[in-house]
Design goal:
The complex is a heterodimer of chains A (371) and B (326).
Chain A: H1 34-59, H2 73-81, E1 88-90, H3 96-102, H4 106-114, H5 123-126, H6 137-151, E2 162-167, H7 174-186, E3 190-196, E4 199-200, E5 203-204, H8 216-220, E6 224-228, H9 232-247, E7 253-258, H10 277-284, H11 288-298, H12 304-326, H13 346-368
Parallel strand pairs in A: 1-2, 2-3, 3-7, 6-7
Antiparallel strand pairs in A: 4-5
Helix pairs in contact in A: 1-2, 1-3, 1-11, 1-12, 2-3, 2-9, 6-7
Chain B: E1 2-6, H1 7-21, E2 25-29, H2 45-49, E3 54-56, H3 61-73, E4 77-81, H4 92-99, H5 102-105, E5 115-120, H6 135-139, E6 145-148, H7 152-164, E7 169-174, E8 181-185, E9 200-203, E10 208-212, H8 216-226, E11 232-236, E12 239-241, H9 245-255, E13 258-265, H10 270-281, E14 291-295, H11 306-309, H12 313-324
Parallel strand pairs in B: 2-3, 2-4, 4-5, 5-7, 6-7, 10-11, 10-13, 13-14
Antiparallel strand pairs in B: 1-8, 6-12, 9-11
Helix pairs in contact in B: 1-7, 3-4, 8-12, 9-10
The chains are: A alpha/beta (371), B alpha/beta (326).
Amino acid sequence: MSDNTAHGEPELVQLLTPDGELRDHPDYPLQISAEEIRGLYRDLVLVRRVDTEAVALQRQGELGLWASLLGQEAAQVGSARALRPQDMAFPSYREHGVAWVRGVAPKELLGLYRGVTNGGWVPGDYGLQLYTIVIGSQTLHATGYAMGVQRDGATGEDGSAVIVYFGDGATSQGDTSEAFNFAAVNNAPVVFFCQNNQWAISEPSERQTRVPLYRRAAGFGFPGVRIDGNDVLASLAVTRKAMQQAREGQGPMLIEAFTYRMGAHTTNDDPTRYRVAAELEEWKAKDPILRLRTHMASAGIADDEFFTGIEGEADRLGERLRGECRSLPDPDPLDIFHEVYAEPNTQLDLQRAEFADYLASFEDAGAEGGR
Amino acid sequence: MSVNLTIGKAINAGLRRAMEADPKVLVMGEDVGRLGGVFRVTDQLYKDFGADRVIDTPLAESGIVGTAIGLALRGYRPVCEIQFDGFFFPATNQTFTQLAKMRRRSAGALNVPVVLRIPYGGGIGAVEHHSESPEAYFAHTAGLRVVTVANAVDAYWMIQQAVSSPDPVVFFEPKRRYYDKADVDTGASVDSAAPMSSARVARQGGDLTLVAYGPMVKTALQAAEADTDHSIEVIDLRSLAPVDYSAVEESVRRTGRLVIAHEAPVTGGIGGEIAARITESCFYHLEAPVIRVGAFDTPYPQSRLEEHYLPDLDRILDGVDRAFAY
């Protein structure tokens, strides 16, 4: 494959190197306090712990499935910390870090993967829509939502904007291209945040694109930028600017967070069938948490006591989450019929009544010895 | 030469044989190459036939079906894997407005021998969009042949028949039965297999006809065994479009009772269509109304409830009891 692929491109916004060195970027200056940096570190560590626990819970049979975000914590936490409460985020199904930052309790995330719900939270309570499994669908929803924000006159310096999360694979879907175009022609206040984690299950990004993904935006008439997706500061700074531009009427922007899926696609997947270990090693050296810790230690932003404290908090979070997961109740069988329609539906009411009678017949039969 | 194969391995072996027999046969889809598909149905085909014949496509179902149509117009026989039932829908436009209509529109000048393989149905504890039974949409669309398999023998032969069919074929694979095994005589000729449009009597009986297809055939057979009071005949439909009505009619004329079971919701489903047809063609032979056993008119529920949503042995026997109540 020639070198006009997604790999090894030089145009990459990076504010924190893998070695933990700070860098300035002329377009994305970042004013950030030591307190905020400690907060980002805490987010990254706790989000990773939620993820690690969830993988373990799946292995123990407590979850049906889990889609790990390992390696993508910085892209998610940084961008989500750039949002304001009045902003709306549309996730894919791996955005556990975004959910964490938006205030969704980790146990609510587990519900979907445990199979007790297909949702998990009330989107309006958090400014975070529900996870979307069918790839790319949410890009159009976000664009439409942003068109609504526009029509409500809710933009402006202190107004709202929308962000949508999707992956490199999703950029191949027609829906995503249509979303880019709708957003562009409407100048909609939406930021397209693509986590290019290099792999769509077994297919490397070369199977999805011949140009760096951020360049797709130019063809639709809006700006695109590639950031170091393992750099939480770059993710924060660039998303903050993109969201503010969107709020202020400058239209959409595409952010390609160049990162890496350190784990399997989901717990059902076996990446050893299609990718080499050396690649994993290369990306381990770019770990998003390690580089922030290095920077914090060398800049005197945090001491050992702080880091130990966060570890302790992560341990307590993990323990609590294990208990919460195991105690998530199975829904009642008649829950199948709940909230299919807002208004009464005689056909469904009949089916529900028949099924309730059917279930009751087992209780009666049980008393008599059963079939 | 008899080989013990799972349904998944049988489809794999059938695809391999079709690819060996005809260099125009291609396999395409998401992750079908090096990974061998998420269910490993295309395992090793990439290694043995190469990237030109086993194509890892971009993640775009409309693109998969649309380009398969183009490849077919150029003389190829693409076998497309749609990764999961619930992921098919971006391809509805290409399938329903283009693939299904091309032959008729061209007055027979164009053939589009595309096969769409779709793992379908529930029972694997999956998240949303991974457990659906959308077959009725396809059966409702003129121009598509729709088939499904319930065992490894049919899987081996019918995938080859689907590939060699000049018509577009939607090939539904019962994902929770992928690992069910049977002995397959892989040395036999394709011509020796029954046509894929024919139904199969899976169990003989005289009191009631129980029609099922795909993943429900196994459940239907278990129900028939469990009912020691009646002699139940089980018909494995195999083809959903067209339906082999003669096989169903022959059975119903002997038994006088018909129950149809499928995982899909009953409303607008295959069962309702068969009920209407059989009521018309076998009216004077019926001792009871035709009974449908299927899912509710609700979205597929979260996996912890799927055992209640999916018709099981008890739900089928409840339907059987209702038929015998007349």
